[in-house]
Amino acid sequence: MPDVIVFGLSGPSCSGKTTIALQLARLFPRAIVVHQDSFYRPDSQIPLHPTARIQDWDSPESFDMQAMVRAIGTAREALTRADGAELHGVDGADQTASQWANPSADVDRLIPPAAIASIRNSALRSLRVDAPHDIPFAVVVVDGILLFYDGADDGVSPGTACDVGALVYAQRDTLRRRREARTAYVTKEGIWVDPPGYFDAVVWPNFTRYHRSLISAVPHVADGPAAAGSA
Question: What keywords would UniProt list here (predicted)?
Fold first, then answer.
């Protein structure tokens, strides 16, 4: 078993990736979470959507993918060198929610402590160890809307830096309701507020456009009930 496992959680905006990522990381005593949201380019570099003619925050070009791949490598190295205590200098590494997602306090309330304890105990049994500090590996958890996207060049997609991954998703109406319930996002150069209809014009079409291969491997992912499939 490797000393460090990099686990990628990808899926559409508001599918629950960050909630899962943070709780998964807390199951392990040595873990780093890397948020793709930390690697958005400056506002002035966000491209326009070709048909909606508004800024497209859900496209690969909106992120510095190479910087993210480097950060994942740095996180892996940090956990290999130490026990995870020395995380300074790891861009995007955090144990809190990205500001583009739910606040950390909300994330903590979404899953009861008893459920986390049950999952932890199940994981320990599966690994055949008695306590979390006996787990023989560290974990880098990576979350983002575009980890395993179609058409990525080798070495540029964050998915190439992951050892294993999963696609997290929910029904389209659920995703829209969650996205539209959010207010403003603090960006590198200001504030972004979704214009009316942004989810249907940009968020959902981009998810289906950049994940055709994953969607084809999981029946009904585009419009079916909430579920998760291997990436």
Answer: Kinase, Transferase
Give the N- to C-terminal CA distance of the chain in Å, as an integer: 20
CA nearest neighbour of 141 among 104, 106, 94: 94
Tokens 């909106």, located at residue = 62
Q: Give the count of beta carbons closer than 10 Å to the beta carbon of residue 54.
A: 15
Question: What does the mean pLDDT of the chain come to?
Answer: 82
> Which residues are paired to 32 by β-bridges?
140
Q: C-alpha 166: how far from its chain's center?
A: 10
Query: Three-class SS of residue 118?
Result: helix
What single-letter amino acid sits at 124?
A: L
Mean pLDDT along residues 175-190: 90
pLDDT digits (tens, 9 = 90+) for 80-95: 886 444 444 455 555 4
Q: Do strands 31-35 and 93-94 pair parallel, antiparallel, or not at all (unpaired)?
A: antiparallel
**Residue 159: strand, helix, or coil:** helix
Measured CA to CA, the distance from residue 11 to residue 106 in angstroms comes to 20
CA-based nearest residue to 199, from 79, 52, 75, 95? 52
Give residue-wise pLDDT tens across range 130-159.
988 888 889 999 999 999 998 777 668 899
Residues 6+ apart with CB under 8 A from 88: none
Q: Six-digit token pair at 117? A: 């304890």
CB-side neighbour CA atoms (13 Å) of 55: 16
pTM of the model: 0.82
